[in-house]
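Below is a filled-in request sheet from our internal design queue. Each sheet records the structural input a requester submitted and the sequence that came back. We keep these sheets so that new team members can see what a complete request looks like end to end.

REQUESTER: design group, bay 2
PRIORITY: normal
MODE: inverse folding
CHAIN LENGTH: 180
BACKBONE (tokenized):
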């Protein structure tokens, strides 16, 4: 949600939501503008681990207009798990058409590396709670309820590409939320 706000301030018209642990291996992957609706770049037919039909995690291209229509992603998910499934449900509720590659050129080709370091284990503490949140589907949590404090913004460049690192402190009142 914070990335959306800064993309909007920078006059972008779409953004890429990208898992930090998913590394593309093929330059043929298309990070294109999503013409017909959100475009799922990490198609379940190409993802090394997740193959279920409703999977939209990994890498997703979405217009700022569509992301705003969804009220972004829920702010209630802490730790690992279910936030992508919640976003998929928001897309269905708002009747956004998910676009995927029509056919995978070589399904046996390793399109991605999904790197889960053994030294940094996933925080699955809240997975059961996150599953509960998914069932109740709170559409109010999102861009409109986002609370954070900007620490700093770092402008950087790698391989000729400019990018920003936006450091923030998320606000969470432990007395109001069970987990954060």
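RETURNED SEQUENCE:
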């Amino acid at each position: 949600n914070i990335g959306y706000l800064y993309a909007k301030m920078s006059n972008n018209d779409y953004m890429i939501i990208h898992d930090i642990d998913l590394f593309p291996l093929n330059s043929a992957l298309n990070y294109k503008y999503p013409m017909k609706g959100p475009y799922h770049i990490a198609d379940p037919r190409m993802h090394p681990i997740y193959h279920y039909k409703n999977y939209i995690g990994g890498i997703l291209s979405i217009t700022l207009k569509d992301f705003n229509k969804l009220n972004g992603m829920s702010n209630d998910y802490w730790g690992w798990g279910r936030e992508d499934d919640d976003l998929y449900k928001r897309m269905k509720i708002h009747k956004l058409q998910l676009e995927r590659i029509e056919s995978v050129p070589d399904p046996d080709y390793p399109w991605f590396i999904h790197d889960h370091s053994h030294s940094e284990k996933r925080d699955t503490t809240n997975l059961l709670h996150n599953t509960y949140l998914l069932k109740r589907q709170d559409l109010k949590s999102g861009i409109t309820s986002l609370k954070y404090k900007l620490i700093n913004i770092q402008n950087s460049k790698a391989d000729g590409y400019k990018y920003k690192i936006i450091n923030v402190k998320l606000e969470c009142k432990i007395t109001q939320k069970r987990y954060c």
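SHEET NOTES:
- The first strand starts at residue 14 and ends at 18.
- The CA atoms of residues 37 and 146 lie 24 Å apart.
FILED BY: M.R.
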